[in-house]
Amino acid sequence: MKNRIIFLDIDGVLNSVAYDRVRTAEQTNIDQTRLPLLKGLVDDTQAILILSSSWRKHWSPDEAQCDRIGRELNRIFAEYGMVISGKTPQRPDGDRAGEISDWLACHGGIASVSFVILDDAPFGWGVLQDHLVRTDARIGRGLEDRHIRKAVEILCRDS
């Protein structure tokens, strides 16, 4: 069986406009009601999480290299029994599909893994489009059950 990878965006996936309207000053930018859904996906598919979000600039595999936001990401994910296993490289042009392709190229290529991309970006995915599960921060709460079902389908079809 191929390794399973979830390329994870944060904004628009683990938060939303609806969440921003109701969150208090004590709450983080992550809507923790979305995390059990992500945890279920990780558990059901045995996938690892790779940050493809712009939030990755705050995170490092070395906790000492994380800033406050990166440490908070680790803490919140740990509360739900999840770990971030890596992050995509950053390109100067911010081309997320290119960054994911670069990560895949460094890890054996597209054919070597089964992967899904959880992101709210509507365009620019090219050959990665068939691996995209697109959320919408303006409608709903970001990540929802229907997105999880589609992500499982994508991860299992490529295994």
Secondary structure blueprint with pairings:
Elements: E1 3-8, H1 17-22, H2 35-45, E2 48-51, H3 68-79, E3 84-87, H4 96-106, E4 113-119, E5 132-134, H5 145-157
The global form is globular
Low-confidence stretches: none
Count every helix, treating DSSP H or I runs of 4 or more residues as helices: 5
SSE arrangement, N to C: EHHEHEHEEH
Rounded to the nearest angstrom, the radius of gyration is 15 Å
How much β-strand is present in the residues? 15-25%
Describe the overall structure.
The protein has 159 residues and is an alpha/beta fold. It is built from five helices and five strands; from the N terminus they run E-H-H-E-H-E-H-E-E-H. It has a single domain (3-157), classed as Rossmann fold (3-Layer(aba) Sandwich), CATH 3.40.50. The protein has helices spanning 17-22, 35-45, 68-79, 96-106, 145-157, and strands at 3-8, 48-51, 84-87, 113-119, 132-134. The protein has a five-stranded parallel sheet with strand order 3-2-1-4-5, with helices on both faces. Helix 2 (35-45) runs parallel beside helix 5 (145-157). The protein is globular and about 45 Å long. The mean pLDDT is 94.
In a nutshell, what does this entry contain?
With 159 residues, the protein is of the alpha/beta class. The protein has five helices and five strands; from the N terminus they run βααβαβαββα. The chain has a five-stranded parallel beta sheet, sandwiched between helices.
